[in-house]
Amino acid sequence: MSEDLGCQVCLTHSGKPYQPRFVLATSPSDLLYRCDFCRTWWIGTQRYQNPVSSDAARAAFPEARLDG
Ligand SMILES: [Zn+2]
Question: Which domain covers residue 49, as residue numbers?
């Protein structure tokens, strides 16, 4: 089983392994990342584990004051 690195949305649609950047963590198991290229938010304990909508990211990380 290979480990896919990078944003799966970008990999799927453009073949480019853009790396979501770390935004913040509210606990050791609640980490937030964002791909600036396709504007996908990612949450979870590992990078690129769980893509979520901006509404879901806002709800999960209200302290981040997300604008996108
Ligand atoms: Zn992306």
Answer: 8-62
